[in-house]
Amino acid sequence: MLSYFLLAFLTPLLALASDDGGITGPTTSSDAAGYSCDASNCKLPSCNCASTSPPGGLKPSDVPMFIVFTADDAVQSYALDSVNQFLAQRKNPNGCAPKMTYFTSLMYTNYTLVTDWFIAGNEIADHTMTHVGDPSVDEINGNAVALNALAGISQSSLQGFRAPFLEYSVNTLKRLYAAKFTYDSSATSSIPVTDPGTDAFWPYTLDYGMANDCLEVEGSCKGQPVLPGFWEIPMYAFFDNLGDTFTAHYNGLNRQLIGLYTHPFLSTCRRPTQAFVNASSKVTIGMINQFLDWAQATAQQNGVVDDIVSNEQLLAWVKNPVPVSQLDANGLLSHCTFPDFSFSTWYGCPEVEPTLSNQNPAQQVPDDEQPRRFRCEYSISRPIGPAGANFTGPAYVPFSAGVSQFPSGLSHLILHASLAVGLLFGIVKFSKHF
Ligand SMILES: [Zn+2]
């Protein structure tokens, strides 16, 4: 069980709340929400009612304990170092390195690092060009254009948005919908899961309007705005004054996910003139890693699948909620043994031993494509480059159709990024509920 000592440690983390989207109390009530959804007409994968119950009617015991990990703002080397120090040394139960979502804004961003981070399998999402609340169409779409033109992120890969300072309006949501974004993640779940009126809803579509932030966002809720198929992924709060928040989610009736929402800039240890910030950062870094150590160990001890995921990965599971009981207990990594040697791969073992005369034999496809949600994503299968072009050429050529050449300079960069260890961080933005 998470010690009270550690919970006390969460306090300074919450104190960072007001820097980017401070929440001072419940942002929704059931009256204000006035939410009503016809579950018989709202079916996955394209529609999901706002609900505290897991998607697809799954029992909570069949649901992984998700920890969503995101970061906001400019991407620079210190920022990726910051994220890496929490994730690079970890593995999810399926053996994959955890992936996360980076909500990127234009100013001060190093786009070469955005490319690297995306290639490493992480999600890149939109956080406006100049970091403004209630952003205009140009702020939203301009940042998407920049991510494509400067970092090679294809428009189809750019699915998500978070409003700076969490300041969004009904018009923001409508603009995202018009621009064909898949989801927004600016809303807040600010009522604890221990409260009967909790707004810790699983991600839901806006076919029947919003159900979060109803006291905060004018014209929202009570059935508005109607944006069919467009998802909201609320941000789930820690509540230090209520005791063991994670355990309440973990052992709670509905195993709602929990989030770690970071701001690397706020607590970097690489600002040499800010000793106080650096010292504070070290405390935060230790605290977060201690929490993740505990969460992963506790889940493992109890036989629970505990996954650190990006919003993209989470949404893929919500759309197609595979019960934990149907997942391969050994994960999705294939161990391939041949007469002369063995190796491991995420992509299915070759059916026969590769040889000089048979360099790329047909591969065994995993039993069920559904668990693909947890397969590690690698760049070679992801379109990237201006207009969706791939680094290896104007069009993606599957490996099974011929030998592809991975640029040596690029692989060096990825390796470098993967091994980088730094000391910096910024985190969670919620202040206290009471
Ligand atoms: Zn921001």
How would you portray this structure in words?
Residues 1-17 form the signal peptide. Keywords: Signal. This is Family 4 carbohydrate esterase. There is one protein chain. The chain is of the alpha/beta class and 434 residues long. The chain has two domains: 4-324, Glycoside hydrolase/deacetylase (TIM Barrel), CATH 3.20.20.370; 326-401, no CATH class. It has helices at 4-14, 30-33, 77-87, 111-119, 137-151, 170-178, 245-251, 275-301, 311-319, 408-419, and strands spanning 65-72, 101-104, 123-126, 160-161, 183-184, 188-189, 204-206, 227-232, 235-236, 258-262, 306-309, 334-337, 342-345. Strands 1, 2, 3, 10 and 11 form a five-stranded parallel β-sheet that branches. Strands 4-5-8-7 form a four-stranded mixed β-sheet. Helix 1 crosses helix 8 (275-301) and helix 4 (111-119) packs across helix 10. It is globular and about 65 Å long. The two termini are 24 Å apart. Zinc ion is lined by residues 20, 72-73, 127, 131, 164.
